[in-house]
Amino acid sequence: MVIFLAIIPNCSIFAEIMGILYVVPTPVGNMEDITLRALRLLKEADLILAEDTRTSGILLKHYGIQNRLASHHKFNEHGTTASVIERLKAGADIVLISDAGTPGISDPGFFLVREAVAAGIEVQCLPGATAFVPALVVSGLPDDRFCFEGFLPQKKGRATRIASLLQETRTMIFYESPHRLVKTLEQLAEAFGADRQGAVVREISKVHEECRRGTLSELAAHFTAEPPRGEIVLIVAGADEKMLKEAAKQARKHATLETNNSQTE
Predict the structure, then answer these.
(1) Could you tell me which residues are beta bridge partners of residue 49?
(2) Residue 223: phi, psi to the nearest 5?
(3) How many Å separate Cα 232 from the centre of its chain?
(4) Residue range 155-198, pLDDT digits in tens
(5) What's the CA gap between 13 and 9, in Å, rounded?
(6) Axis crossing angle, helix 181-192 with helix 216-225, rounded to the nearest 10
(7) Nearest residue to 204 via CA among 124, 108, 136
(8) Global pTM?
(9) Distance between alpha carbon 10 and the CA centroid of its chain, in Å?
(10) In which region does residue 66 sit, left (phi positive, over 0), alpha (psi from -120 to 50) or beta (all else)?
(11) Which of 170, 174, 198, 228 is surrounded by the most beta carbons within 10 Å?
(12) How many alpha carbons fall within 13 Å on the CB side of residue 160?
């Protein structure tokens, strides 16, 4: 076989080969909830970026993986991302993990991914563990259409965010901390109605996993009496489309009557 090689003046014969940024989900509870590909990448990567190196170190030790860990979290990502991008440009393959679940989903990751994409670096996200999917499925609420809201604002903008969801017909998914759960349930019950259906799913894939279903008022009462522990996913049914349409129809009818009355006066 004869190979002809064209030499172009002032051009490098070898193209620059950049590394790949791998976004790798890690277990949200049970250590077995990790893919074989994820384990391989954790072993082979040139560097692992971890939200908390101590937490991720436990996972790596469990699987006998020895690799270099570096901290990458919401408090330092704006300062460390530039150097990470340079390493990727130089050909390093880097894995990004969070303490649990998929990076970027209510965890650090978006900023680095955005900068890598802007720099022309290949980004791959592995399918795998995340808390809200199993919570949605076991809730028993409609899962054909849903919206993920993550954590509600703690103070500023909280009421505005809830108000923006008043006419949301899709099933809604929230993350919440144990000490704010009852307050959130009470606020949602006041906004959406006490009889709106919901489910609180906590400690997913752990020994004490629980799914408590009921109306928002029932859930608030239960967790007031029995304060929750652990990681929590709150699933809330969407507004009834027929009721929303009927309410809109009545509002238009009322507006028309007021307009006609004002014209006859």
Answers:
(1) 70, 96
(2) -80, -10
(3) 13
(4) 899 999 999 999 999 999 999 999 999 999 999 999 999 999 99
(5) 10
(6) 160
(7) 136
(8) 0.84
(9) 47
(10) beta
(11) 198
(12) 4
